């Protein structure tokens, strides 16, 4: 099982270590540093590194490497999932997961890690159980603690720990009972030069914020559940009812959580909200090139496209860009070689255009690789797959909750080849 | 106010100050001090000096302080075992506390204090906690058993904790069940044969019930445990599958992959015509696809597993090609894996799409990725015959880009395409030739030269092209030199008139001016061939080559089956069986897929059907004790019966043994000894049969060997003198003595059969029992004439290593049965392990270095060889004769260090370090991954070097 954890920042400083079994010397991280150096980019460090006596499984989150050490055969996904959970817990507790917040809260971090894993076995990873055991720091609490000498460690066994619904604590009480659901869809797509879809799929999630008293039992149903054939649920969802009736029946955790995620695959037709006409070319001589990009609406279902941003990763030899944008602003960073064109709202009557010349390093040969465009966008009040929530019913409690559903579509990994 | 304040220090000395604060009367100050101590600990500072002071803070009713002290204790108790005892009382008391949280905390922490002395105090509280009324305490106690087992396994067994733990599998609380399963699985890992997890339909049912109710992590443990169960029949298998399938929709990807493992394994038992089988196949695809939208690290592990699944059951993902398309901001490790899977899924139906994608990738920035993409195009051509033409034209397009590394990579793969489809695409050769000058990588140059040589008759200026390479012959890498030599010989055989001078030139470059033995040997062979019999030469050099196989990179089926059983584990990430790399030799059991029910299907894997998954496949694992004994005996009298000459006595003693061995080998080196003569005489028989035809060639080869001897080539391997294996009195007058030899890569058993009876013996036959390395006669025992009384006949029996394998005791024991017209006789003999050292045992230096570093210390053995006065060069030459190859040499403080590699016929590598001081070579043997071989190897080395 998981033996030890090391946290390492981007500069290669090891700033926290925690051992769940015997202490393993931090020199084991040398193998990690070796791999880190070889990978050049932090994103490219292989997740599983083999050393003579251990395996190092690591993730890279928020500019921190979470490096775990294991000694026996352990499912690597288990370790990776757990590490992500650790990062999420830090995020949840301290508002952000960064080196400075971890250092600022080092004792709580240590207490958390101890609570999350015992002898390498996960113990409590549910946020609401952890919060009963170790209270998250707030300015108010730390002041009160300093004055009264009370602590931020829970003295009793968390109620949810052993019930068959470990995700919910008992005795929740709210004056305003409310349940909100956000249907968020991201389009992952690759379009080729001519604008044809090479590949497109939708990654959807339903995020929930449920603040209901007592033990509510909820049922969420869709207008068109047949769209969903590939789903992953929060453990609270009763899978049997989904199988038989295609409704989501669950006792919700308290607060924010992800109810489900779904995936609408490449085989179904995925609507692409915008089209991009682009021409980026480099001349054989003269160390220069031209760029001309136009974005227009395609299948927007009558909604407005907002937050439109086009990012171009230029070849290394491009020194500067002299362009003219009919809408929005552009910025070329000559160090990272990234051109960002922030368009904003897309006006179907007057299509935004970015045009001009690129200057290259003199004497350098014409770049071999084709730059690739990335599109970012947002459409409010639309789930591009067409998914719609039908109704939300509550059983088990008497009060009338306030309910709400919001839809939003975003671009995920939306790439246009040139 | 944040915790970062705990990191600040004052000048007075941190430890001193902390000590004072820890002993303060004020509770608050104490707590702050402990927090500072913990903060120092997190960054790896040694604060163990504060141990007594921190432990003094333990007796408190403040839970936070208690927890902090416990954190400290766990880290440092091991360094202060005597002090740790001080804490025991508090633990024992806490285990009786009314608050279950405190009881659990105490038993949990106690288990983490890895001090032997504490364990005895732990037993009673633990026993109580395992039966605690509160499930939270029980589940914590279950894990504690695993901790205790890690510290003192015997104690856990003696105290009967294992049985209690097994009982917990039937606990009413699913979390307790999950933790019990996890603990048992961990313990079982160190006891491979202990049958701890005794799975039967009842327990399986309990596990399946708990599966629905426990936490995600518990589900992983339970699923992994389920995967090791073997259902009784296909109906049970189906019912388990049905109950596991909902896990495929879990948000935790580790749960999903463990569920996939269970399904992939149990599916094997379902009849293929069952409806449910098809449904299940369909259900597997979506979750696998979903894994690819997770974080990149998860994707990587998922992709490595999908790679296996696709090889086993391509039908699952055959329609999902597009999800493996590479996004430009995927990390490189994800890109490379996706590419691999794309090729595996490539078929006639989707090849157009795949090729378009691959061509796109070939213009990306990352060089490694581009190269692999180009290579992938070539693999597509080889895999999907119909697409070959399109692939070739895509490759030509890429060559036109003139991007250096793309061109080189394209030429390498085009060579492979030529080997798959000979005489089909030679029209592209002209284009290839245009790029000759830009090739600077050896692999690409060698590929180009191969193409020119192979199609020499169609390339008008082939001689000029090859000649241009010849100018810098000595600067080329070996790969290119060898290729150039062969290509020019091919050219000469095709166009003898114009190229005589060229071939002379290359032959003399290869044979006279080169230090490389491989090149020289090949040069000589060509030379002799050409000068003695050009017709034979043509037959050999221009012989029709076998086509390369479609998928050379597929995982071998038995390994694949084993890996499928390990989906989701490290083994599946590395695509190696767990036994190959799991730390220590914890004797991992090989897993097999279960046999399928129903008639028609069992043919798929017949041997699996017979042996059954519970029976571990035959492996070479001797008991350590005996071999150790052997090792200790080594210096006096090796049991490997290398006693010289006809004397049947085994008790000759050390003096004689060394003397005999020394004589024969030293003699051999000079060339006068009879045993060496035999070695040389037999050598031509080892040459390929195709050469043996013309007698003239035979003579030429003899010449060649003389020549080789002259320039100090390593001579044959050491051959021990014959010993008597079967006494006449025990075998109705037949006496057999013999020895083993390795000649020209062929293992031979040299036998002398003597008839000491009164009547004629005929009808000889020989058979071996199964043995450790699968030695078996490669042909019948050739005793052509009847053996008359008092006659002795010498026969050489070639052996192969492809026979059935069974571990023997000692490892190199061989049981033989010989039959004649009178009776069947049995005897056993022992062969020197050096017999199994193969000729290609020379490890690449880089690989050697990497492997050497990787060898666990436990796999090391060391011994000394006495009374030998050889310098390192002579020793290394001699050892090379026995296929012990010196990889590197360095001199440290007057000692010569030789680093050597040996490869056994079954692919095990042995690495060695030899230190030579005058008269006292000291050997460190390091055996890669298989510690048990080392003892045996070491026994054998003395005769070889002496």
TrEMBL record, chain A:
InterPro entries: Adaptor_comp_med_subunit, AP2_Mu_C_sf, AP_mu_sigma_su, Clathrin_mu, Clathrin_mu_CS, Longin-like_dom_sf, MHD. Residues 176-417 form the MHD domain. GO terms for biological process: intracellular protein transport; vesicle-mediated transport. It is a peripheral membrane protein. The keyword ATP-binding does not apply. Transmembrane segments: none annotated. Keywords: Cytoplasmic vesicle, Golgi apparatus, Membrane, Protein transport, Transport. It is found in: Golgi apparatus; Cytoplasmic vesicle membrane. The keyword Disulfide bond does not apply. Its main location: Golgi. It comes from the Eukaryota. Gene3D superfamilies: 3.30.450.60, Mu homology domain, subdomain B (2.60.40.1170). One of its GO terms (cellular component) is clathrin adaptor complex. PANTHER family: AP COMPLEX SUBUNIT MU. Part of the AP-3 complex, an adaptor-related complex which is not clathrin-associated. The complex is associated with the Golgi region as well as more peripheral structures. It facilitates the budding of vesicles from the Golgi membrane and may be directly involved in trafficking to lysosomes. Belongs to the adaptor complexes medium subunit family. This is AP-3 complex subunit mu-1. It comes from Cyprinus carpio carpio.
TrEMBL record, chain B:
Residues 837-946 form the Beta-adaptin appendage C-terminal subdomain domain. One of its GO terms (molecular function) is clathrin binding. It is a peripheral membrane protein. Residues 581-623 are annotated as: Disordered. It is found in: Endomembrane system. It comes from the Eukaryota. Residues 718-828 form the Clathrin adaptor alpha/beta/gamma-adaptin appendage Ig-like subdomain domain. GO terms for biological process: animal organ development; intracellular protein transport; vesicle-mediated transport. Keywords: Acetylation, Membrane, Protein transport, Transport. One of its GO terms (cellular component) is cytoplasmic vesicle. PANTHER family: ADAPTOR COMPLEX SUBUNIT BETA FAMILY MEMBER. This is AP complex subunit beta.
């Amino acid at each position: 099982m998981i033996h030890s954890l090391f946290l390492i920042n981007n500069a290669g400083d090891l700033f926290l270590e925690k051992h769940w079994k015997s202490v393993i010397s931090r020199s084991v991280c040398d193998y990690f540093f070796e791999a880190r150096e070889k990978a050049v980019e932090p994103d490219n460090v292989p997740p599983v590194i083999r050393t003579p006596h251990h395996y190092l499984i690591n993730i890279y989150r928020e500019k921190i490497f979470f490096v775990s050490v294991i000694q026996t055969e352990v499912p690597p996904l288990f370790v990776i999932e757990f590490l992500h959970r650790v990062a999420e817990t830090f995020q949840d507790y301290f508002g952000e997961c960064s080196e400075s917040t971890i250092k600022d809260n080092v004792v709580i971090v240590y207490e958390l890690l101890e609570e999350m894993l015992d002898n390498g076995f996960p113990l409590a990873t549910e946020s609401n159980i952890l919060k009963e055991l170790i209270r998250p720091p707030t300015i108010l609490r730390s002041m009160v603690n300093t004055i009264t000498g009370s602590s931020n460690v829970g003295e009793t066994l968390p109620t949810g720990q052993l019930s068959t619904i470990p995700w919910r604590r008992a005795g929740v009480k709210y004056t305003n009972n409310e349940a909100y659901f956000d249907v968020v869809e991201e389009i992952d797509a690759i379009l080729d030069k001519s604008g044809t879809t090479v590949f497109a799929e939708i990654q959807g999630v339903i995020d929930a914020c449920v603040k209901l008293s007592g033990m509510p039992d909820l049922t969420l149903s869709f207008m068109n559940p047949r769209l969903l054939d590939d789903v992953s649920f929060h453990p609270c969802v009763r899978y049997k009812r989904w199988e038989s009736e295609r409704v989501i029946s669950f006792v919700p955790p308290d607060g924010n959580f992800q109810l489900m995620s779904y995936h609408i695959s490449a085989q179904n037709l995925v609507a692409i909200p915008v089209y991009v006409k682009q021409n980026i070319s480099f001349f054989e001589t003269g160390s220069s090139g031209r760029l001309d990009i136009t974005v227009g609406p395609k299948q927007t279902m009558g909604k407005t496209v907002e937050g439109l941003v086009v990012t171009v990763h230029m070849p290394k030899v491009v020194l500067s860009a002299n362009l003219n944008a009919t809408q929005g602003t552009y910025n070329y960073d000559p160090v990272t070689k990234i051109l960002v064109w922030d368009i904003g709202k897309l006006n179907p009557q007057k299509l935004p255009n970015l045009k001009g010349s690129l200057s290259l390093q003199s004497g350098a040969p014409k770049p071999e690789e084709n730059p690739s465009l990335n599109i970012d966008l947002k459409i409010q009040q639309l789930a591009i797959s067409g998914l719609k929530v039908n109704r939300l019913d509550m059983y088990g409690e008497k009060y009338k909750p306030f309910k709400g559903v919001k839809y939003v579509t975003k671009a995920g990994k939306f790439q246009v080849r040139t | 106010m944040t915790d970062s304040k705990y990191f600040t220090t004052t000048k007075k000395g941190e430890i001193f100050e902390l000590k004072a604060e820890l002993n303060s009367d004020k509770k608050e100050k104490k707590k702050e001090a402990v927090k500072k101590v913990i903060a120092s600990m997190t960054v790896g500072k040694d604060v163990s000096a504060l141990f007594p002071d921190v432990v003094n803070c333990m007796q408190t009713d403040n839970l936070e302080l208690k927890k902090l002290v416990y954190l400290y204790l766990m880290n440092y108790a091991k360094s202060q075992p005597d002090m740790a005892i001080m804490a025991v009382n508090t633990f024992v008391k806490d285990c009786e506390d009314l608050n279950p949280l405190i009881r659990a905390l105490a038993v949990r922490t106690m288990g983490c204090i890895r001090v032997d002395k504490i364990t005895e105090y732990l037993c009673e509280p633990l026993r109580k906690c395992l039966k605690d009324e509160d499930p939270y305490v029980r589940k914590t106690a279950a894990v504690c058993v695993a901790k205790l087992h890690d510290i003192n396994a015997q104690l856990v067994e003696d105290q009967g904790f294992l049985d209690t733990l097994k009982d917990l599998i039937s606990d009413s609380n699913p979390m307790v069940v999950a933790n019990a399963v996890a603990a048992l699985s961990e313990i079982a890992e160190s006891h491979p044969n202990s049958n701890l997890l005794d799975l039967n339909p009842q327990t399986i049912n309990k596990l399946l019930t708990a599966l629905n109710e426990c936490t995600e992590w518990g589900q992983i443990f339970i699923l992994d445990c389920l995967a090791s169960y073997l259902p009784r029949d296909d109906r049970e298998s189906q019912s388990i599958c049905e109950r596991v399938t909902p896990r495929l929709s879990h948000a935790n990807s580790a749960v999903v992959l463990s569920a996939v493992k269970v399904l992939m394994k149990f599916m094997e038992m379902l009849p293929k015509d069952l409806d449910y089988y098809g449904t299940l196949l369909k259900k597997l695809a979506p979750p696998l696809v979903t894994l690819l939208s997770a974080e990149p690290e998860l994707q990587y592990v998922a992709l490595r597993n999908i790679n296996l699944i696709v090889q086993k059951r391509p039908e699952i993902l055959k329609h999902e090609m597009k999800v493996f398309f590479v996004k430009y901001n995927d990390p490189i490790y994800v890109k490379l894996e996706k590419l691999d899977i794309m090729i595996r899924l490539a078929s006639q139906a989707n090849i157009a799409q795949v090729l378009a994608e691959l061509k796109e990738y070939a213009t990306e920035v990352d060089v490694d990725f581009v190269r692999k993409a180009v290579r992938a195009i070539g693999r597509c051509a080889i895999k999907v015959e119909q697409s070959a033409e399109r692939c070739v034209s895509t490759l030509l397009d890429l060559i036109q880009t003139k991007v250096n590394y793309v061109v080189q990579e394209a030429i390498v793969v085009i060579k492979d395409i030529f080997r798959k489809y000979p005489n089909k695409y030679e029209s592209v050769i002209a284009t290839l030739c245009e790029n000759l000058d830009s090739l600077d990588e050896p692999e690409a140059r060698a590929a180009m030269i191969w193409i020119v040589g192979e199609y020499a008759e169609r390339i008008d200026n082939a001689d000029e092209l090859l000649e241009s390479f010849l100018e810098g012959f000595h600067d080329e890498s070996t790969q290119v030199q060898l290729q150039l030599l062969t290509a020019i010989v091919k050219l000469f055989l095709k166009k003898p008139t114009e190229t005589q001078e060229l071939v002379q030139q290359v032959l003399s470059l290869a044979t006279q001016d080169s230090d490389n033995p491989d090149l020289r040997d090949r040069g000589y062979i060509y030379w002799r061939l050409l000068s003695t019999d050009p017709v034979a030469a043509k037959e050999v050099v221009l012989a029709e080559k076998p086509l390369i196989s479609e998928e050379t990179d597929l995982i071998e089926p038995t390994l694949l089956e084993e890996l499928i059983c390990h989906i989701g584990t490290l083994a599946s990430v590395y695509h190696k069986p767990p036994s190959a790399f799991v730390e220590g030799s914890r004797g991992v059991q090989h897993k097999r897929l279960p046999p399928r029910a129903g008639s028609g299907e069992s043919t798929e894997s017949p041997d699996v059907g017979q042996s059954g998954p519970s029976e571990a496949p035959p492996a070479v694992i001797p008991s350590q004790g005996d071999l150790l004994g052997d090792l200790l005996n080594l210096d006096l009298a090796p049991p490997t019966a290398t006693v010289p000459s006809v004397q049947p006595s085994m008790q000759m003693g050390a003096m004689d043994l060394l003397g005999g061995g020394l004589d024969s080998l030293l003699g051999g080196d000079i060339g006068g000894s009879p045993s060496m003569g035999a070695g040389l005489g037999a050598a031509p028989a080892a040459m390929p049969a195709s050469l043996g035809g013309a007698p003239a060639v035979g003579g030429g080869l003899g010449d060649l060997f003389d020549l080789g001897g002259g320039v100090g080539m390593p001579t044959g391997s050491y051959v021990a003198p014959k010993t008597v294996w079967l006494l006449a009195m025990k075998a109705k007058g037949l006496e057999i003595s013999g020895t083993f030899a390795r000649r020209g890569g062929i293992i031979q058993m040299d036998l002398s059969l003597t008839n000491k009876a009164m009547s004629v013996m005929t009808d000889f036959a020989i058979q071996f029992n199964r043995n450790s390395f699968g030695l078996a006669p490669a042909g019948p025992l050739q005793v052509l004439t009847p053996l008359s009384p008092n006659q002795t006949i010498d026969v050489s029996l070639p052996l192969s290593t492809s026979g059935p394998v069974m571990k023997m005791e000692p490892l190199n024991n061989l049981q033989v049965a010989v039959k004649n017209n009178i009776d069947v006789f049995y005897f056993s003999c022992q062969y020197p392990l050096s017999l199994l050292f193969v000729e290609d045992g020379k490890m690449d230096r880089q690989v050697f270095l990497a492997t050497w570093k990787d060898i666990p210390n436990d796999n090391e053995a060391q011994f000394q060889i006495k009374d030998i006065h050889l310098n390192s060069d002579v020793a290394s030459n001699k050892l090379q004769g026995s296929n012990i190859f010196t990889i590197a040499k360095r001199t440290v403080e007057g000692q010569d260090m030789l680093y050597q590699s040996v490869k056994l016929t079954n692919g095990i590598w042995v690495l060695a370090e030899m230190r030579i001081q005058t008269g006292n070579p000291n050997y460190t043997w390091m055996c890669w991954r298989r510690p048990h071989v080392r003892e045996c190897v070491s026994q054998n080395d003395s005769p070889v070097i002496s």
